[in-house]
Design goal:
Distance between the termini of chain B: 48 Å
Radius of gyration of chain B: 23 Å
Subcellular location (chain B): Nucleus
Largest interface: A-B, 23 and 15 residues
CATH topology of the largest domain in chain B: Jelly Rolls
Helix content of chain A: under 10%
EC number (chain B): 1.14.11.27
Strand content of chain B: 15-25%
Oligomer: heterodimer
Number of domains of chain B: 2
Largest sheet of chain A: 4 strands, antiparallel
Radius of gyration of chain A: 20 Å
Protein name (chain B): Lysine-specific demethylase 8
Strand order of the largest sheet of chain A: 2-1-26-25
CATH superfamily of the largest domain in chain B: Cupin
Main location (chain B): nucleus
CATH architecture of the largest domain in chain B: Sandwich
Number of strands of chain B: 13
Strand content of chain A: 35-45%
InterPro entries (chain B): ARM_KDM8_N, Cupin_8, JmjC_dom
Distance between the termini of chain A: 10 Å
Helix content of chain B: 25-40%
Number of helices of chain A: 2
CATH class of the largest domain in chain B: Mainly Beta
Amino acid sequence: MNWFGFGFDGFGQIRPADVSGQVLCKVNTPVLISDVCRSNCRVRVRASWSSRADVHHADCCSGVCVSGFASGSSEEVGRGILPQSQGCTDALISERYLTLNFTDRVECWEIQYPQHKLVWKREQDNTGHAAALPLVSGGYIMPKPPFFRPLCSKLCALSLALGSEHAVLLTSDGTVYSWGSGSHGQLGHGALTSQEEPQVLEALWGVPIRAVSAGNWHSASVSAGGDLYMWGWNESGQLGLPSRGLEEEKRRGKSSGNTEQPVNEDGKKEADVFISIQAFPALVDVPNVFEISRISCGSRHTAAVSGTGDLYTWGWGHYGQLGHGTENSRDEPTLVDYFPSHRMCVKDVICGLWNTFVSAVPKEQPPS
Amino acid sequence: MAPIWTDVRAVLPSTASEFPLQFSEKIELSVLKVLELARDQLYSEADGPASAERAQLIIDYSWEKLNTGTWRDVDKDWRRVYSYGCLFKVLSLCHGYPSQYNIQEAIKTCDMSLLMGAAIMDNILQRLVGVIRNKMKMKSPNKAHRSEEPCSKKMKLDCVSEPVINPAQAVPRIHCPSLERFRSDFLDPQKPVIIEGITDHWPAFAEHPWSIDYLRTVAGCRTVPIEVGSKYTDEEWSQKLITVNDFIDRYIIGTAEVGVGYLAQHQLFDQVPELKGDIRIPDYCCLGEGDEDDITINAWFGPGGTVSPLHQDPQQNFLAQVVGRKYIRLYSPDETKNLYPHQTQLLHNTSQVEVENADLEKFPDFSKASYQECVLQPRDVLFIPQQHWHYVRSLELSFSVSFWWS
């Protein structure tokens, strides 16, 4: 299992700093992440704006190693497993905190130098709990004090995605709830009002959902049948809907890549209808793809893995986080050509705020 | 002539220690590190450039913070970080021998920090825009000489309907009332009135008569927020940031295809101090309780046909007309029940009724509401009492200045 990364690299979270200490800011084509532990352990990558955390889960090593800003200055010795993370089952990294989940407790460590500092801890019985962070027994962990927020147990939470000011929850019966700020339509209830408590997404009622994700101001969900629904702010095309801002960017000639207008099958230009805010879930068509298996959102971009192992990205691209070799934003789901070109099958995708991390295997291998 | 970089660099403090980067703990250490690297780079070499990439990083990251939560809740320090990002970007644009495009971009960047950021280092970006603007003016003298009028095509569309004022409903006019007279007859009873003769001394009418030419000279390269769409209650309504030159080219002189554009409710006089010198705060504002600093001065500049739907404001208003004429209708707050305000929090101060095209089936009581109306002329000042409903339509190219006071 190899991990690749592209996008914002201002702190060496994709490519460790070279000898001179100068780090190029943007990686616009996938590169192999060289410092991920390559033993047989399964690694899950988590990312914030400035850092990356690799969660190792194997007999040989069980814990988290960090890179980027969280790992401190480049003089620091090694990027091994953080001692405090030994035995952890899951981790999340935000700009200020590293959250570590254990079977008997969950901890928040403040990222600072020379050593991270434990600032919060909660005992729990997490042994039967299958869900990933930020969900824990009885609620979830926010990346800021007071950290623990209770969730009504009747909800049977399966997976929770936290945006910068909203939350999207998937429950075990395939229902989606959302709460938080609604100013950019990111709650999907049809209005721009905010909600304090989890509210069912009526528009998806009856459609069993199996995955949810949240960016800063947008949300995504994948149905059991592999359909992708998105809602929220589309200012950079992160919903895969026509974006006025991108239209103007193209007109100003900022595109260094393909400047042709996209045409539909009839050869006519698409209608001049732009979506700025989509307050209800919209079905997003990914060309040539019948089902989506994984979805992840950065602050203003989106990445999706198809059932056949291809990666598609769209939205804000100024830091190369779309992986197409340019710094253009896209308002249409676009194949990341690197992987099929290198005969790789994409397994999973995790977005940091301004970057994208992908796990992939060579196509010859039978899918594990 | 000294290159622009010399003048720009002269505005900066001479040492890094005089270049403070003090923020609350809300500002994360990671972005603080980028700020420090950007500052240190400036002072490490004698003539060091600033990194455009680092500047953009700071701008992009703080922009995301500025768009999180309501504007009121945004931590002031994130707005300061945004301003620092703009400062570093301006420095990188002005280094060496910048092109005209770069100089315009530098001015636009200063404007973005004035519009969205918070003042830093003694309002350094306001000082910088003055320095850079001088360089721009010297390089493009042609624009100042071109004399322009709104094109005739546009004017034909503007003069759609010239309203006839019913004398029985006309807003009364008074010439230079004393403070006492104004207070007793209009301010205390909260009655609208048009005051004549109090703006003749404004440089906007005397030394620098305002015209399209003049505005181009003084503010042409400055970036301002423009409202696009016939009125702010429309679904198609949006805002964009363009230069005053572009606004004039596209929405004043240009063809009608782009729709209506309006430089509305913008504190232009804070952004462009030269224009502030052309106007004066009406003396009658001293009758209020607030300080002069609390008075909000807004510019309203647009072609004929701009509409402000019937709405009410929480403060007293003096609306001074400088260029062109506006049709204005006023309803007392007593009439509110007949004016069908929107029920939402966002628009509860705005009526649902289109004043000059009222749907009386949907809003039958509107015809019961009594009102006053006027055509405001250049040099007139209309007193709109607090909470008084008002509807405004420009009849031709118009520039008004409003003073909100308490």
